Amino acid sequence: MRRPHTFLAAILATSAIVSGCALRSPSVQELRYNPGRYQNRTVAIDGVVTSSWGTRFLPVNFYKVDDGTGEVTVMGREGRTPPRGAHVRVKGKVNDLATFGGASLGLHLQETDLDFRR
Question: In order along the chain (118 residues), what is the average pLDDT of each group of 10 residues?
């Protein structure tokens, strides 16, 4: 009779571990409001590219993604820069250049993965 309880406990423990490791998808507004919560953590943002800059001769590119709640700058890896107006899902690590008076300066994502949406 104890087996169903043991099996149920194993399922609950597994689901708790998996949900704790899930990729966070906060809004840009939430990132800006509470950057310390996401500092050095990987998040995913879905949105539209509002501006982009990159060249084949430099190992990085920059673009801004707007998810409807605000814009965040993304520092991309070497490779293709998404064009303005592209719908993207970008995964990256949240970083900032400095914190001054409790405000994050230079909040950006360091791109780890980029998917183009239709």
Answer: 58 52 79 88 96 82 94 86 93 81 76 85
How long is the chain? Answer: 118
Number of neighbouring beta carbons within 10 Å of residue 89? 15
Q: Provide the residue type at 73 as one letter.
A: T
* Domain locations in the chain as residue ranges: 24-117
Angle CA 17–20–23, to nearest 5: 130
CB 49 within 8 A of CB 86: yes
For residues 72 and 43, give the distance between their C-alpha atoms in angstroms, rounded to a whole number: 12
pLDDT of residue 103: 61
- For 24-117, CATH gives 2.40.50.140
User: What is the model's pTM?
Assistant: 0.73
The Cβ-side half-sphere exposure at 24, using a 13 Å CA radius, reads 16
User: Phi first, then psi: what are they for 87, rounded to 5°?
Assistant: -90, 125
